[in-house]
Amino acid sequence: MPEVDESEREKQFYTDIPVKNRPFFLKGCNNLDWGMKNRLSKIFNPKTGKTVMLAIDHGYFQGPTTGLERVDVTILPLLPYADTLMLTRGILRAIIPPTFDKGIVLRASGGPSVLNELSNEEIAIDIDEAIRLNVAAMAVQVFIGGQFETKSVHNMTRLVDMGNRYGIPVLGVTAVGKDMGRDAKYMRLASRILAELGVTYVKTYYTEKDFDTVTASCPVPIVIAGGKKLPEKDALTMAYRAIQDGAAGVDMGRNIFQSDSPVAMIKAIRKIVHDREKPEAAFEFFLEEKNRLEGNKKRKT
Ligand code: R5P
C-alpha cells in the first residue's frame, strides 16, 4: 500500500452537490480543448467576455510606421492597459519584457512589403517557434477577393491545423486590399469564410451599416481593427457601436499609438469595451486623463 492519504478525517464526497457543467464564455468556443480555452482567457477577459488588443504589428509590411518608430519608448508605457499585444516575433524578442504576462497574439503570416502585392503572403513562422514564445494565439491575414486569395486561405487552414495540434488559437484577419469593399456584405462574406474554415476568432473592420449582421452571421467572436487614425471621439464612437453590434472587442493600433495621448486613449477604449461606457463619457474621460498626464509631465520637467 502506498503511504499516501493517512488522514484520519472522514472522506467527503459531497454527494448532494452535482458537478457544475459551465459553458465557456466565448461564442462558438465551447467545444475547444482546455489549452485553447486557457489561451483564449489570456486574450479575452472572462468577466466581461471582451478584449482590448493592442495591435503593433504594422512593421511586418510597412516598416517603421508612425508611432512605432521606437516601440521601447512609445509602446512599453501602454502595456499595463492592454489585455493582449499583437505583434511580430522580432519586436517581441527585441523589446517586450518577458515578464509581460498577458496574451501575445503573434503575427504568423507575411512576405510582401507595401512595395508589392500584399495578398501574396506565406506562413512566416514554425509552430515550434510559436510554442517556444508561449503565445496565446497566431494571426494570419486572409485576402478574400484578393489576387492571391486561395494562397492566403491555405495559409490560414494550415495554421489552423498546426494550432489545433498544439492547442493554439488562430486569429483570422480579414485583410482589405486597396480596391476591395469595406461594406457589411463583404465583411459577412470574408468573416464567415474564415470561421467556416476553422479560425478561432476573426478580426474585421467595422461597417457603419449593418455591422450587427456581420457579427450575427459569424459563429465565432469578432474583434474590430481600428483602421486609419480618426479624431479620438470618432474612434471611441466606432468602438462603442461595434460593441453594441456584437463585437467581442477591439484589436486597435493607430487610433491608440498615433493619438496625442496614447495612454489616455487606451484607457478610454477600455471604458467603452469593458465598462460599456457611452462614447461621450469616454471622450470626457480621455480629455481629463490627457490633461492630467500632461500636467504630471510638466511638473517633472
Ligand atoms: C494590419 O494589417 C495590422 O495587422 C494591424 O494589426 C491591424 O490593421 C490593426 O491595426 P489598426 O487599428 O492600426 O488598423
Unreliable residue stretches: none
Helix coverage percent of residues? 25-40%
What general form does the structure show? globular
List the strand order in the largest sheet.
1-2-3-6-7-8-9-10
Structural class: alpha/beta
| Alpha plus pi helix count | 12
The strand count comes to: 10
Estimated radius of gyration: 21 Å
Which molecules are bound besides the chains? Answer: ribose-5-phosphate
Mean pLDDT: 95
Instruction: For the record, give the distance between the C-alpha atoms at the N and C termini, rounded to a whole number.
Output: 72 Å
Q: What series of H and E elements makes up the topology?
A: HEHHEHEEEHEHEHEHEHEHHH
Major beta-sheet overview:
8 strands, parallel, barrel
Could you tell me the strand content as a percent range? 5-15%
Summarize the structure in words.
By secondary structure, the chain is an alpha/beta fold. 39% of the residues lie in helices and 14% in strands. The protein is built from twelve helices and ten strands. The strands form two sheets. The chain has an eight-stranded parallel β-barrel with strand order 1-2-3-6-7-8-9-10, surrounded by five helices. The protein has a two-stranded antiparallel sheet with strand order 4-5. Helix 9 runs parallel beside helix 11 and helix 11 runs antiparallel to helix 12. The chain is globular and about 70 Å long. The mean pLDDT is 95. Bound molecules: ribose-5-phosphate. Ribose-5-phosphate binds next to strand 10 and helix 10.
